[in-house]
Amino acid sequence: MRVAAVFVRSASWYNVPKVAPVAGPRALFARSLSTATASAECYIEHLGNSDQGITILNFNRPAAKNALGRTFMSQFRNALEELRFDEQTRVVLVRSLVPKVFCAGADLKERATMNQTEVAEFVHGLRTAFGNLESLPMPTISVIDGAALGGGLEVALATDLRVAGSGAKLGLPETKLAIIPGAGGTQRLPRLIGIPKAKELILTARVLDNKEAADVGLVNYAVDGSGYDKALEVARQIMNKGPVAIRMAKLAIDRGAQLDMASGLAFEQTCYAQVIPTEDRLEGLRAFKEKREPVYKGR
Which of residues 108 and 219 earns the better pLDDT score? Predict the structure, then answer.
């Protein structure tokens, strides 16, 4: 299969990753489970038909409210590794199949059996895994229809967008347990909503409903009922855009936000250079001229 873009040598110092092709054949059934069966605690589900290209990362550990235990995290990491190199997936939705909960955070019962070294190792593993979620090349959307607390909110913070249903509860309550958020919460939350508000939420352990979360910019949308339909709507809006352009736009924003303005603009130029030689760019121009919808191939 043809690679979507070839990177110029002048970009090498930025360590820009290669862009995988994002189009190709997929099985003809509507939904397939590629990582594990529906009985797994965390697994991938590929949508089909008109939603082909949208993949769901399902959380399904009802006995522990999707708490981040060893088995759950092992399956979570494996799913992320599969998604990172999935040439067909254009958007990922992260959702819970457990009613009234997105993710309850750390598995405190399991944590109580660990010694200090094991706790440090496990939290480091959480931090690394959430970083891997954040760095997926395709856009990610959290569907929050219940409690997203502690590590659960840290999962959502590692996604690009967040949609909260009417039953959502969001917060970082770690200080109640005499600890602090340790898997990215103290870093991603202030970058998202600002330092003063992040300090308030972390220091007071305040928990927000979906409307309050939207007011402070913690979620992109607060909806009545389930957030799934709205998240799917947003995913579909992304789906008909140029796949290579979508990945490059995400990369330019994420990397550029860590740089000074001059370096960020230079990195933007580097990312822009990757879309110029693509077939999709020419297809977009043809479609505009012919007054029709473009058909992008991801190359």
Answer: 219
